[in-house]
Amino acid sequence: MTENQSQYRFDLLQKRWVIIASERGKRPNDFQVPKEPAESDGFCPFCPGHEDKTPAEILSIPAMPGRTNPSRWQVRVVPNKFPALRVEGQPVREADGIYDRILGVGAHEVVIETPQHHSPMAERDIEETFLLLKVYRERIRDLMNDRRLKYILVFKNHGSSAGATLHHPHSQIMATTVTPRIVSTELTSCREHHQVKERCLICDLIKQETTDRDRIICIDDRYIAFCPYASRFPFEAFIAPRFHQHDYVNASDDDLRLLASTLRDVLWRLKLALDDPPYNFVLHSSPNTRVIPRRAHYWDTIEFDFHWHIELLPRLTRVAGFEWGTGFYINPTPPEEAARFLRQIS
Ligand SMILES: [Zn+2]
Ligand SMILES: [Zn+2]
Predict the structure, then answer these.
(1) 171 CA distance to ligand 1 centroid (A)?
(2) Model pTM?
(3) For position 82, what pLDDT does the model report?
(4) CA of 167 to the centre of ligand 1 (A)
(5) Residues around ligand 2, an ion, CB closer than 5 A
């Protein structure tokens, strides 16, 4: 194991992997109380004209014709300058006494969503968001060609208290050689539901929500956004196709354009209702089925039992001792009330 590469280490008590990212090499002095994102110093590495301040581009989408645009690109994807994981090496699981560890192989990319420094996703037009959703699809598809990578997560941190360290709108893509525990819990729940009922759990959830209706934020023919029955956070939203689809990569252009409209709708309502709250969103798509499964029948029903979705988590409450100690969340806003409030925003 090279000195500078990070490692996955397995937590035997909690049955989860942790990434020990030595390369980011922080000393105690480097940890300070969170500040506002570093726009105060006026320099933004993601703004047009500063392209040489990021690592070499993985993908660049040219500027959309007929629009005022400060650059020749509309979306750029670059490797993270401080990656928690690196693409080099073989992810072999090895014993370390009683412990297990794996070389920190993976991918860590940054998606610069727009050349405009002050253009939050909630305020962008549908075509721009559509382009971004297509970039996510393209990057996931490409990363899935790497058979070492078991899971590819697209996520976004908006606002410093949601973890954004730069103000310029960006999202991130993390590809890991182990399946994250939260994803694997979802996969197991979906597979078990399918084994018993021969139906997709998330299709069933959506059917229940369209029957109950009181947790729906917005709905059209193809997509639904609702506050989950057991929302962990106030105004949490779950966005999914109303038709069964296990893998985001299979979404058509027409569908992604509608998804862009739903996503923007939800973000716009949250912005108006809660005065531009910090939030995280995560895209939970199918795991990479091209990875050689080590367990029998591992992906047999994935196409039928899993259903991709986006989880949007406004960060209005702080996760504190009780949550860390128990895994419980205390949500002071019933999802029915949150949804009613968001529905009323026009
Ligand atoms: Zn910028
Ligand atoms: Zn389904």
Answers:
(1) 13
(2) 0.93
(3) 84
(4) 7
(5) 200, 202-203, 244, 307
